[in-house]
Write a structure and sequence with these properties.
Elements (H helix, E strand, L loop, with lengths): L7 H5 L3 H18 L7 H10 L6 H18 L8 H18 L9 H22 L2 H8 L6 H19 L3 H12 L4 H8 L8 H16 L2 H10 L4
Helix pairs in contact: 2-3, 3-4, 4-5, 4-6, 5-6, 5-8, 6-7, 8-9, 8-12, 9-11
């Protein structure tokens, strides 16, 4: 295995935003090399923070952001017409397993987590494909109907992922994620971005947040999702 970029102690004190950047770089390296021994320590730290009953909500949001890419990449062709439903069902199962299960998912290697997600996708797809009726399939998926609060939490993660995908600029996406998903203070966002964007100011960050929300709420689908969930930010 390639040596990790940081020791476990370093990772425990690393910010989620930095972990996200490191994790994305590790995943990109894996896609290029397909080396199963590729370092994934930052991804595993995100998983560790998210995978327990008292887990970090921002870490779970970030983990789900990363996981949706796996869902889209590995969803079998016969189930792609129902991709949004599959994303929601996988998200609900993941939330139950990481936060509500008497035996929560044990955060081990990130390769093991990806395998768990892939098996969940295939299971959901198989049940859905057999049904041929998404409404009936939804009932079959939920012998124990999830609580409204749990469903809303997963939908919230999906909403923010959808919003981020609609923003055209990388800087706008990062500021949106830091402020709206990770709930960072504007001063902290400015400090984190200074190395890459030396001219960034608090006023610019406020303006980008306002412009992003205005742009997103002009999209009928996103506006409807915001309204249905009571999101006023």
């Amino acid at each position: 295995m390639q040596p990790p970029d940081h020791s476990p102690a370093d990772l425990h004190s690393t910010s989620l935003s930095d972990l996200h950047q490191q994790c994305e770089a590790q995943l990109a390296a894996f896609r290029r090399s397909r080396n199963t021994q590729q370092d994934s320590s930052s991804c595993e730290e995100i998983l560790r923070r998210a995978a327990n009953r008292d887990g970090d909500d921002a870490a779970f949001s970030l983990l789900w952001h990363i996981t949706t890419a796996f869902v889209r990449q590995t969803c079998p062709p016969q189930c792609r017409p129902f991709l949004e439903d599959i994303e929601q069902e996988v998200g609900l199962r993941l939330f139950r397993r990481l936060r509500l299960s008497p035996s929560p998912y044990q955060a081990g290697s990130f390769a093991g987590y990806r395998l768990y997600v892939n098996l969940t996708i295939k299971n959901v797809c198989t049940n859905l494909h057999r049904s041929h009726d998404i409404k009936h399939a939804s009932l079959e998926f939920h012998p124990n109907i999830p609580s409204p609060s749990m469903t809303k939490e997963v939908l919230r993660h999906m909403l923010f992922n959808r919003c981020e995908a609609l923003l055209p600029h990388a800087l706008h996406r990062e500021i949106f994620r830091r402020r709206m998903v990770q709930h960072e203070e504007v001063a902290d966002i400015v400090a984190a971005l200074k190395d890459r964007y030396p001219e960034i100011t608090r006023n610019q960050v406020y303006r980008i947040i306002e412009d992003s929300v205005r742009r997103l709420k002009s999209d009928p689908e996103v506006r409807e999702m915001f309204e249905s969930m009571g999101e006023n930010e």
